[in-house]
Amino acid sequence: MDRRTFFTGGGGAIAGTVAGSALPGAQAAGSSKPYGIPDIAVLDQDGREYRFYDDLIRDRVVLINFFFQSCGDTCPLVTENLRAVQDALAGRMDRDIFMYSITLQPHFDRPHILKDYAELWEVKPGWKFLTGESDDIERLRRSLGFASLDPEYDLQLDNHTGILRYGNDRLGRWAATASLGRPAWIVKAVTSIADVA
User: Fold this and answer.
1) pTM of the model
2) What angle do CA 35, 157, 142 make, to 5 degrees?
3) 3-state class (DSSP) for residue 82
4) Which of 18, 65, 81, 167 has a beta carbon 3.0–4.6 Å from 174's, enabling a disulfide?
């Protein structure tokens, strides 16, 4: 697989993007759950239950980030930035592009907390805030590449909130960028993999 790495700056953040790469821990072709994405049970801000891979990822173009409601500085900035991304994607959200924000504190961020958070930011359809069992969310975090090999760095929740992973599951194309990158750049990146024939 051809891997190209390039760097872009935006919102005071530097982001590395890998174009056309598989997720960490990718599985062999023919696996029922490609790229090692666990099909865990998750709940959205309305309390609806989904299977993460089968219901939310399979054959979709998605943007995924991790956050937590009590995060001090980074998460509100990221949510505000992703709200601008959602506005820019307009009619494509909830039709052919979907966004998921997954809590890093599932024991605290239950659906009613996530609902209040989503309402605060006037989130529109197509963007779900997700929680689940702590062990499942941790497995999901690691499988999606939001983990560090440095155990001390990995314990700091804020260290995982600046990344935005996006992908086209149908084509098996995944990349990542800074969640504080310019909204127009994020939109261009995600639509470039969404519009591939």
Assistant:
1) 0.81
2) 15
3) helix
4) 167
Helix ranges (DSSP H) in the chain: 74-89, 111-120, 134-143, 151-155, 183-194
Taking alpha carbons only, the member of 117, 139, 137, 118 closest to residue 127 is 118
What is the rounded CA–CA span in Å between residue 138 and residue 128? 18
In whole angstroms, how far apart are CA 77 and each of 11, 17, 24, 162? Answer: 10, 20, 27, 10
Q: What does the pLDDT look like over 160-190, one tens digit per residue?
A: 668 899 999 999 999 999 999 999 999 999 9
The most distant pair of C-alpha atoms in the chain lies apart, rounded to whole Å, by 43
The C-alpha angle with vertex 16 and arms to 15 and 18, in degrees rounded to 5, equals 140
Collapsed DSSP state (helix, strand, coil) of residue 190: helix
Report the candidate in 164, 159, 161, 196 with the shortest Cα–Cα distance to residue 181. Answer: 164
Using an 8 Å Cβ cutoff, are 194 and 61 in contact? yes
Please determine, for residue 8, whether its predicted confidence score (pLDDT) is greater than 70: no
